[in-house]
Amino acid sequence: MTSVSLRSLLRATSLAALLTAAIASAQPPLPGTNLASLLDYARAHNPELAAMRLEADAAAQRVQPAGALPDPVLRVELENVNNYGNGGGVNLLPSKVGETKYTLMQQLPAWGKRELRSAAAAADAWQAQARSIATWSEQAMRIRTAFAQYYLASRSERITRELLDLVVRLEQVAQARYAGGLAPQQDVIRSQLEQTAMRAELIALAGEKRQQQARINGLLGRDPAAPLAEPEALPPLPATGTFAAPELIARARSASPTVQAERARLQAAQANRELTLRNRYPDFNIGISPSQMGSRITTWGVMVEVNIPLQQSTRRSQEREAVAMVDAAQARAEAAAVQAAAGLQEQVAALHAARESETLIATRQLPQSELGLQSAVAAYESGKVDFATLLEAQRLTRKARLDLLKFQTEAQARAAEIERTLGESL
């Protein structure tokens, strides 16, 4: 190959590499490296959240029409269309009949009814908005819990691979000692059995990762088989003092979206009750009526129409129904507040237990088990302990590291439940 051809080939290869890098950099990064990337994607693409937001927007648009006056009504009456006595034939033109009467009417509800209808519609809009917030809180809780489980499976897989490499090295040590007549063949067999068990665990962890990926993609509104980036770290938790139960319970009773939705329902029920009581008073229709003969307006009239509320038994039943609905909404609001407080207390207690266990493992159990493993490896190499003792030390270290991950994941799930109850981040 000539030098010119070689230079051309190198330039083409470099150009292809640059194009590949440019295409890769132009593609948006995969979500999944951290919780924030998943939440941002869900805010923009989650279909259930989008539906709730649109419903809240629709409810907000109903407030103004609820308090507006109904459209006026125009009535046109053609009298003597057969022109009896005028010598003409049948005609439907206003100027060609005996008389044409125009009536323009406007309905006027009794005083206060329009304001009460607006108040009820505003409460419904508030309820829809609270439910939209509750939906997002629920979705965020599920995403955070799924991400913690995804992180648990990913890190457990990494820890198992690291310890598998250690067991492979220990097998080599056992084979060397066996070849030198310093250890029984059983040590080599035990190391191989341990490797087989750990590889089986890796298969299970890989399946768990795929399950969590499908779950996260479903929450994000993505294809279940869409790829996710490897999780890098769990989101940090606030300081322990943030989780003081009395303050959180007070926040839950006032700010929980579920409680807010029930309070909005109560407000709507109260407005509907007042509106039902106002139905004792009549509504009005007012209008003006010009009359046309030929091509001229000859007379003017004014009309007032009033509905007569005679069906008192029906109205009393409607009023009792409205009162019962208010009482039911009041009970639901109180039940939601009690449930929020109880659930919050439960989650705070579980969170504190998980964090205390995590601290205990991180500061005592894990350092002790790792030190024990290092000591057991050195002792086995010098023939001071048997292989069973070494494997037990390895298992204790793996258990401590996995337990630490599990309690970290548990704390994340409890924090997610608390944020769902509060409807806001900690």
Helix-strand blueprint:
Layout: H1 3-26, H2 35-45, H3 47-61, H4 63-66, E1 73-79, E2 99-108, H5 113-179, H6 185-220, H7 245-255, H8 257-278, E3 284-293, E4 296-306, H9 312-381, H10 387-422
Antiparallel strand pairs: 1-2, 2-3, 3-4
Give a quick summary of the entry.
This protein is α+β, with helices and mostly antiparallel strands and 426 residues long. The protein is 69% helix and 9% strand.
Q: Give the averaged pLDDT, no decimals.
A: 85
The CATH superfamily bears the name Outer membrane efflux proteins (OEP)
**Neighbour order of strands in the largest sheet:** 1-2-3-4
Percent of residues in β-strands? 5-15%
The ordered string of helix (H) and strand (E) elements is HHHHEEHHHHEEHH
Second rung of CATH, namely the architecture: Up-down Bundle
Explain this structure.
- This protein is of the alpha+beta class and 426 residues long.
- The chain has one domain (29-69, 109-422): Outer membrane efflux proteins (OEP).
- 69% of the residues lie in helices and 9% in strands.
- The protein contains ten helices and four strands.
- The protein has helices at residues 3-26, 35-45, 47-61, 63-66, 113-179, 185-220, 245-255, 257-278, 312-381, 387-422, and strands at 73-79, 99-108, 284-293, 296-306.
- Strands 1-2-3-4 form a four-stranded antiparallel β-sheet, with no helix packed on it.
- Strand 3 and strand 4 form a beta hairpin.
- Helix 7 (245-255) packs antiparallel against helix 9.
- The chain starts with a helix and ends with a helix.
- Residues 21-26 have low confidence and may be disordered.
